[in-house]
Amino acid sequence: MKAVEVKNGIFWVGAVDWEVRDFHGYETPRGTSYNNYLIMDDDITLVDTVKCDFSELMIRNIKSLVDPGKIKNIVINHIENDHMTGIGDIMALTPNAAVYITEKGKKGIERFFDISKWNLKVVKTGDTLCTGKKTLLFLETPMLHWPDSMMTYVKEDKVLISQDAFGQHIASAARFDDEYVTCQSMAELDDAVVDYYANILMPFGQLIKNKIADVQKLGLQIEIIAPDHGIIWRQNPGKVLQMYLDLASGKADCSVAIIYDTMWHSTEKMTVPLLEGVRSEGVGCKIIKLRATPMSIAVKELWKARGCLIGTPTLNNIMFPSVANFLTHVRGLRPKNRVAGAFGSYGWGGGAVKEAYEMFKKMGLDVVEPGVEVNYKPSEADEKKIFEFGAEFARKVKEHHAKFN
Ligand code: FEO
Predict the structure, then answer these.
(1) Residue 207 Cα, ligand 1 centroid: separation in angstroms?
(2) Angle between helices 380-404 and 266-279 (to 10 degrees)
(3) Sign of CA dihedral 55, 58, 64, 66
(4) Residue 169 bears catalytic tag
(5) Does the annotation mark 260 as catalytic?
(6) 247 alpha carbon to ligand 1 midpoint, in Å?
(7) Per the residue annotation, which of 17, 41, 148, 229 is the catalytic one?
(8) Are 76 and 105 in contact (CB under 8 A)?
(9) Rg (CA), the chain
(10) Angle formed by the axes of helices 295-304 and 186-196, to 10°?
(11) What's this model's pTM, rounded to 2 decimal places?
């Protein structure tokens, strides 16, 4: 993809990764992009780089605008490998450039590169860099989502380069939200935002709310939000800000996600009466089989729904491995304001459902106990019991939803 002007001499010079489906263990069925931005001012400034496998594409884009040797400043908003590793290739072309980075970023980047000869400038919130006609304001955003993270705001153009925040894992020929919706759909873009948030930013909800409040206090006007992945928000940046506030506040649909795995289809057979029980209370419901679904999508579905019912067969007295793996991952994401319950089948001895509840309690979720467990396969009487549990769970979800949405 060629360099694209975002606004008044600020160019996207990144790379689209059409092929990536496994992003450090997080499935990316839509691919992704590594966005970075070249500011063509008196002092040419590059904000962020790309994953080093894509340096050649980035450098070609820069060369279409200027000799990379003329870059005077490089801003590193975030030192995760997908944005920072390309700096080695850029520094080889412009070794005297000043590198602007946070203190934590400096401590991290020196683990990757010999920075002894670099002209490094450590910055903090409120520091500015004048590039000629433009002023760059730095805003630290520690733990959003790494300790080193910051954002760069171009004052004159009201452009916020937001690194990972507000991004999405999407590979597309479109660079902007208004272009994307002409070839795809707004619903798909929204879905990609939720997917990204749920899998990467879920643990940091309170920090996100605080940081957005800080930005509002500073009175920054934002006309464009340019993240380091996916689509740039120029038509309606306020929409993605509001989406983040809602996601960070734990807003959810009044619905239930049934997320399960199965050995010999018995736990699977339980999902239908369970869904019917939930639906009998007028609550929406979706069934997701773990081994048939990328984990990142199961996480997104869990976060979209107010309630989650986890189905697991018992294997050797404990949870089925794919379910245990999923719940371990979810525990790290620290979901809040959600209701959980469990169900499953067993042969000669149970235990998985009990273990799932122990996990829910460690996560601080609101639970509907004791769940439902059946021996070998559900009988007609079991199906009635399962239906009733689904209905009881849905009533709890409605009650919880009224409190938290
Ligand atoms: Fe896209 Fe935190 O890296």
Answers:
(1) 17
(2) 50
(3) negative
(4) no
(5) no
(6) 19
(7) 229
(8) yes
(9) 24
(10) 100
(11) 0.92
Rounded Cα distance between 68 and 60, Å, is: 9
Annotation says 195 is catalytic? no
Q: What is the SS3 assignment for 214-279?
A: HHHHCCCCCCEEECCCCCEECCCHHHHHHHHHHHHCCCCEEEEEEEECCCCCHHHHHHHHHHHHHH
What is the Å distance from ligand 1's center to 332 Cα? 17
* Residue-by-residue pLDDT tens, the chain, 405 positions: 799 999 999 999 999 999 999 998 888 999 999 999 999 999 999 999 999 999 999 999 999 999 999 999 999 999 999 999 999 999 999 999 999 999 999 999 999 999 999 999 999 999 999 999 999 999 999 988 899 999 999 999 999 999 999 999 999 999 999 998 877 788 999 999 999 999 999 999 999 999 888 888 888 999 999 999 999 999 999 999 999 999 999 899 999 999 999 999 999 999 999 999 999 999 999 999 999 999 999 999 999 999 999 999 999 999 999 999 999 999 999 999 999 999 999 998 899 999 999 999 999 999 999 999 999 999 999 999 999 999 999 999 999 999 887
Q: Which residues contact 349 (CB under 8 A, 6 or more apart)?
A: 314, 317
User: Domain-by-domain residue ranges, the chain?
Assistant: 4-248, 256-404
> Which residues line the pocket of ligand 1, CB cutoff 6 A?
78, 80, 82-83, 145-146, 164, 228-229
CA-nearest residue for atom 1, ligand 1, is: 164
At 77, phi and psi to the nearest 5?
-75, -25
C-alpha 333 – ligand 1 centre gap (Å): 16
State the CATH class of domain 4-248.
alpha beta
Q: Which residue has the tokens 């590198």?
A: 99
Is 82 considered catalytic here? yes
Residue nearest to atom 2 of ligand 1 (CA): 80
- Determine the CATH number of domain 256-404: 3.40.50.360
- Shortest-distance atom of ligand 1 to CA 164: 1
Contacts (Cβ under 8 Å, ≥6 apart) of 263: 313, 315, 320
- Alpha-carbon dihedral of residues 12, 17, 18, 22, nearest 10 degrees? -140
- Distance from C-alpha of 243 to C-alpha of 319, rounded to nearest angstrom: 35
244/251 Cα distance (integer angstroms): 10
Please provide the size of the chain in residues: 405
CA-closest residue to ligand 1 atom 3: 80
